[in-house]
Structures are given as structure tokens and as C-alpha cells.
Design a protein that fits this description.
This protein has about 450 residues and is an alpha+beta fold. It has a domain of about 190 residues: Uridine Diphospho-n-acetylenolpyruvylglucosamine Reductase, domain 3 (2-Layer Sandwich). Helices cover about 30% and strands about 25% of the residues. The longest helix has 20 residues. The chain contains 15 helices and 16 strands. An 8-stranded antiparallel β-sheet has the order 12-9-11-10-14-15-13-16. Strands 3, 4, 5, 6, 7 and 8 form a 6-stranded antiparallel β-sheet that branches.
Length: about 450
């Protein structure tokens, strides 16, 4: 790896640490993109500009790792690794997700049935804490912070560098789409893949009762004679193809970003299921970053005036993790009580159970259910999000904190390890310069 890249990285970190040390009072990050889907209170905080920490420092193909700065979007990391024949072990589904964000949050994708969540694939990281120190963390160095950092959402510090695992990939993948009408059979097939994988990537979609599609992606070096790779980056929609094809081919690049073009299927809420609108929008603007900008703009006048001309709704944007033996029962209750469709189904294993703020069992695969939509409601605001939390608890699962949470403080700390968190908070941020986890996740700080 280039010494010049390392020197430039160290200079950027020193500048950031100096800015933090020279400032006073509460702090929050200034960054170009965010994948948080919960409102933030307008509070008087110093903004720490981390936008410059967005570089890939180097690729070590022999060791199978990348050294990367915390604010680097995965799209840039993938662009750096693919020419070497590698990809990050886990590539979260949206291009704008940053490597540090996926570590402090909970990144997942369709290789998770082999490797676990993003934090299971990080070997080492540097964390900037409130007093300006930069702590190198690994299972051997500062292990309490290394294992306590995932699910802390910037409340303990900020990653300036991460060493992430890479896996060898091929130029193309072959997709097999298998339909299921029975949830138990679907999850049994997933369990078998988790135990003895036959494919490189695995995920599924629940479209409606009795309508499931499970997708296995296999590495291939070249396309079969006479076959062209499909293109879902403009006029065609990947999620619709799951019903239309039993077999498909994509470049590895387009496979990794297959969900980004339409933000899974959420672009339909903006009319992007209509080809004339997709044509006008253009290939470059069909992506999750565009949709996020539109979504955030919709919270402000004059777009917010639309709320007076439509039925009252509640936004339910959640990812939840359920032990696989309970997955079918959870989904049935979710359908009956909430009814959002489609639902993303992404299995994962837990290779290491030491991550204290998102403690999961290691003796079972989990199913991540992702559902993101509006629910018509005559109930008090927050009713359906609270119902999700109740369903998750009843089925032995955990809920991600990137979106709305309704827990009271006592209930919150039954789900997340308060003793460990407060010990880490005293070490990393004794003066409370960063928002606390509960205040940030539920109090919208």
C-alpha cells in the first residue's frame, strides 16, 4: 500500500482530531449523505466536518483486506476492489452507505448467510473519541470498544479507518429464482443453504401470502454463448424480474447494486414504475441518493402540503432480525397486523456473539426482514412502529435503530446492554459531547 496514501490519511485524521479538541460542547457530524430514517431535533451542536475522510487507502489482495476511511461510500470501495478481482465480504445494498456507518450501524446483504453482518467482517478500526484520541481497536486491542461499537450509532466515537475483509469474485453471476408458496418450506431451504452453502449470495422477497421468491447467485467467469447480461439500471426493474424469470445473468458490479436503482421497490412511490418517467429521469439519477433527497425535501414546504390531501399514514421503515425457526410465525403475524408488501428476506449467520450492543445467538441463522412503506392509520402516531417492536420481542428478535423507535428508556435498555454501554461511554465520552444512544435512537438527537 502506498506510503503517500497513509501519510495523507494521517494528516486528515490529525486535522479532524484537532478540530474536535479545539471545539467545545456537544458535537454532531457534518456529512454528505445519511441513511438514518428518523427525524433529528434541531439542537445547538458543533458540526464536525468528516467529509474528507472518504478515501480508500489501499488494497492488499494477498491478505484479502482493504484499508478504508470511515466516510467512504461502499460504491467507491467496490470500484476500488473489483479491478483486483475482489469485493468486500458484505456490500450493503445502497451505494451511499458508508463503511464506517455500516460498522457503527448494522450493515447486511446477501452474502451474510456466509459471513455474518458487516461488523463480523471488520478486522480492525481506528475510532476518534471525544477527547481527540484515536484508538486502534480489534479483538486484541481495546476489545471492549471493538465489540461494543456496532449499534452505537456515533454515540461513542467515529471510525476514521477500517480494515475490512475482501472475498474473491468473478466478473459475472448467474441467478436462480425459485418460487415458494409455503413459508416453512422457504425457510427450510434457507436453513440448508446456511448450513451447507451451494451459492455465493442468497436472499428472497415476500410478495404476498403464498408468493415468495428465493434467489441464489452463483459466481461465473463468463456468460454462456449467446447470452447477454441483464440491465436493471434504467428502464427495467430488478425486483419485477424475480417473477418474470427463473434464471438471469448480471455483471458482479450490477448484482451488488441491483437494489440501489429502485431503492429496492420504494421508487414506485415516486412513480418510477412507469417507463416514460424512468426515461425522463435518466440512468444517472435512478438511485437511492436521488430518492433520499426527494424524501427529505418532502418533509418541508411546499411538498408537505400534500399531507392535507391524502389519508393519514404512518411511516414504517424498519429492518428486524428474527431467529429462523420463528421467521414464518413472525411473518404471518406481520402480514395480519401490519401488511406491508413486499418484504425483503435476507438470511445471516452469527459467527461471533461478542458484540455487546447487538447481542445475537450463535446457534441459529437469523432472517433479516426489511419493510419500508406507509401504513394507513387511524391510530395514534407511532402505533405501527410500536407494534413492530412488540412482534420482534415476541419472536426473540432484535430491531435495528436506524429508523424510528418508540421504546421507553426502561424497555430500551432491556434490549441493549446498558451496563456495557455506560462503561464505554465513560471511557470514550465522559462529558457527553456525543448524543447518548437512547437519546439519539429514540429522542431523535
Amino acid at each position: 500500500m502506498s506510503e503517500a496514501n497513509w501519510a495523507a490519511h494521517r494528516a486528515r485524521v490529525e486535522s479532524l482530531a484537532g478540530a474536535l479538541t479545539d471545539s467545545e460542547g456537544p458535537v454532531r457530524l457534518r456529512k454528505r449523505t445519511s441513511n438514518l430514517f428518523r427525524p433529528r431535533e434541531a439542537v445547538d451542536r458543533t458540526e464536525l466536518d468528516v467529509t474528507s475522510l472518504n478515501q480508500v487507502i489501499g488494497i492488499d489482495a494477498e491478505a484479502g483486506v482493504a484499508e478504508v476511511e470511515g466516510m467512504t461510500p461502499y460504491v467507491d470501495l467496490v470500484d476500488a476492489t473489483l479491478p483486483h478481482g475482489f469485493a468486500p465480504a458484505i456490500v450493503p445494498e445502497l451505494k451511499s452507505i458508508t463503511v464506517g456507518g455500516a460498522m457503527t450501524g448494522l450493515g447486511i446483504e446477501s452474502s451474510a448467510f456466509r459471513y455474518g453482518l458487516v461488523h463480523h467482517t471488520v478486522r480492525e478500526m481506528d475510532v476518534l473519541v471525544a477527547d481527540g484520541r484515536v484508538l486502534t481497536c480489534s479483538p486484541e486491542q481495546h476489545p471492549e470498544l471493538f465489540f461494543g461499537f456496532p449499534n452505537s450509532y456515533g454515540s461513542l466515537g467515529y471510525t476514521t479507518r477500517l480494515r475490512v475483509d475482501l472475498i474473491p469474485v468473478t466478473p459475472y453471476v448467474r441467478l436462480e429464482h425459485t418460487s415458494f408458496s409455503d413459508a416453512e418450506q422457504l425457510f427450510a431451504a434457507i436453513a440448508r443453504e446456511c448450513e451447507q452453502p451451494t451459492c455465493a449470495y442468497l436472499d428472497g422477497v415476500y410478495f404476498a401470502p403464498g408468493e415468495f421468491v428465493l434467489t441464489r447467485a452463483h459466481f461465473i467467469d463468463a456468460l454462456p454463448a449467446g447470452v447477454e447480461a441483464s440491465d436493471y439500471t434504467w428502464l427495467q426493474q430488478y425486483w419485477k424480474s424475480l417473477h418474470e424469470r427463473q434464471e438471469d445473468y448480471l455483471s458482479i458490479h450490477d448484482y451488488l447494486w441491483r437494489w440501489d436503482t429502485d431503492w429496492f421497490w420504494c421508487s414506485k412511490n415516486l412513480g418510477m414504475q412507469f417507463k416514460p418517467l424512468r426515461f425522463v429521469m435518466g440512468r444517472k439519477r435512478l438511485n437511492s441518493i436521488t430518492y433520499q433527497k426527494i424524501m427529505r425535501a418532502s418533509h418541508h414546504w411546499p411538498l408537505s402540503m400534500l399531507q392535507y390531501f391524502r389519508p393519514r399514514t404512518e411511516s414504517v421503515i424498519q429492518d428486524v432480525d428474527i431467529p429462523i425457526d420463528n421467521a414464518a410465525a413472525f411473518l404471518a403475524e406481520f402480514e395480519n397486523q401490519i401488511g406491508i408488501r413486499p418484504v425483503w428476506i435476507c438470511p445471516f449467520v452469527v459467527p461471533d456473539g461478542r458484540f455487546s450492543l447487538f447481542e445475537l445467538r450463535t446457534d441459529t441463522p437469523y432472517i433479516n426482514f426489511g419493510f419500508w412503506d406507509m401504513v394507513r392509520s387511524s391510530e395514534p402516531d407511532g402505533h405501527y412502529n410500536a407494534l413492530v417492536e412488540e412482534l420482534v420481542a415476541r419472536h426473540g428478535g432484535k430491531k435495528s435503530l436506524y429508523s424510528r423507535s418508540t421504546y421507553d428508556e426502561s424497555r430500551f435498555w432491556q434490549e441493549y446492554d446498558r451496563e456495557t454501554y455506560e462503561s464505554l461511554k465513560r471511557e470514550c465520552d465522559p462529558d457527553g459531547r456525543f448524543p447518548g444512544l437512547y437519546e439519539k435512537a429514540v429522542g431523535q438527537r
